[in-house]
Amino acid sequence: MLTDRRVKALGVGKHYDAGGTGLLLRVTKDDRRAWVQRLTIAGKQRELGHGVYPKVSLAAARLAAAQAKDVALAGGDPIAERKGARKVRLAAAVARLRTLGDAATAYLEAHGAGWKPGARREFRSRLARHAALLMDKPVADLTVDDVRATLAPLWITKTPTATTLRSNLRHVIDYARAAGWRDSANPAMWDGTLRPLLARPSAVHTRSHHAALSWPKVPNFVAALRKLEGKPARVLELSILCASRSGEVRGMVWGEVDLLAQLWIIPKQRMKAGREHRVPLSAAAAKIIEAARPVLADGQVIDQTALVFPSAAGTPLSAARVLKVLDIMHAVAEGGWRDHRGDKITPHGFRSSFRDWAGDQGHSRDVAEAALAHQLGSEIERAYARSDLLQRRRALMDSWGMFCNLG
Questions:
Q1: Residue 309: which of 288, 292, 326 has the closest Cα?
Q2: With respect to CATH, is domain 100-204 assigned 1.10.150.130?
Q3: Counting C-beta atoms within 10 Å of the first and last residue's C-beta, which end of the chain has fewer, N or C?
Q4: Which pLDDT value is given to residue 272?
């Protein structure tokens, strides 16, 4: 029988321990002393290592050998079990190396295919700008303090951004937990986690509407706008005439436009509500698009995928370019163009100007809301009311176009 004193003194060779477990000490010429166990597993002689001495003591080796023999006698395979346990430990170690940035990338790959391109860019940009200090941290180690410290600087001054960021973090960390990269609770949850640490968003931020020009002033604004040259000015003018979002006009391609039918069809992928939207073009709106038509040589046709208002690089004009037009308009107008509160107007606010005009002029609420691509009524009502009121909206947009030309 081996003893601690003998284990230290034994020379080169194989030295069996008593006890019937098949445990032996293998001593090599370089004085390496390793524990090995010989077992019969599924009718075959196998060897199972139990570590080296003195890192693994005699008592520890005997215990491991006894446990392995019990598994073999019960018909199991202790070698396979050990490999499986090693794989589990390795997977856990790899998971602990996964960072929040890795989780964000994986989450976007899993869910981003159904998002609009702008939403994917904003998701990446928001995390890069406001959670940069967290992106290289192991997602398994993130704490509530980490998330709170990231959100706190924005919570009062940029509440909408902060609440969206918290939601993004929650979804990314939920992905990491489902993928096995994190075991503990999600530190970006609101209820029971961040609620006691941060003020209610509604208590520190009051939602304000986009500043809108009073509708009687719209014709004068349009008249002044037409004095400005350049694609950004035309994008703003067309968005006013079509009561559309700036991004919808900036992303317009020739394949969406039928000038003969005076119709612009925006695919659902580019609409906020994810539904196709048909926009009847007034004469004034069609004129702007016609003026943007490229000059082609004989036999050439317009590339249907080409942007109607491309930048110099061939990409969609940025929102900043359109906002710059408003800055110029403010600069040249005495006192600037402002809403009833004195705030500078925004491009999006012209949708509100259009809606107020339509209501004050007695146009149908349903038709006006349809022109803005808003959904009305319950889900059941919408299931039965499938018409988009195109012909009635055409009359409405023609009237709006003529009104905008009065300046």
A1: 292
A2: yes
A3: N
A4: 85
Cα distances from 266 to residues 131, 190, 242, 271, 385, in angstroms, run 34, 37, 12, 7, 20
> Where do the structural domains in the chain lie, given as residue ranges?
4-97, 100-204, 215-404
Q: Count of CB atoms within 10 A of residue 212's CB?
A: 21
CATH superfamily to which 215-404 belongs: Intergrase catalytic core (1.10.443.10)
Task: Give SS3 for 327.
Answer: helix
Q: CB–CB of 212/184 below 8 Å?
A: no
pLDDT tens for each residue of 57-83:
999 999 999 999 988 888 888 888 888
Give me the pLDDT at residue 382, please.
53
CB 339 within 8 A of CB 213: yes
DSSP 172-213: HHHHHHHTTS--SPPTT-IIIIITTTS--HHHH----PPP--
Q: How open is the CA angle 48-50-56, to the nearest 5 degrees? A: 170
**DSSP 3-state of 271:** coil
How do residues 245-275 score in pLDDT, each as one tens digit?
999 999 999 999 999 999 999 999 888 888 8
Per the listing, tokens 């110099």 go with: 312
Sign of the alpha-carbon dihedral angle for 90, 95, 101, 102: positive
Alpha helices in 243-361 (DSSP H): 246-250, 283-291, 319-332, 349-360
C-alpha dist (Å) from residue 150 to 142, 163, 172: 11, 11, 15
CA distance 43 to 114: 55
pLDDT > 50? residue 384: no
d(CA 199, CA 203) in angstroms, rounded, equals 7
How far apart (Å, rounded) are the C-alpha atoms in residues 380 and 386? 11
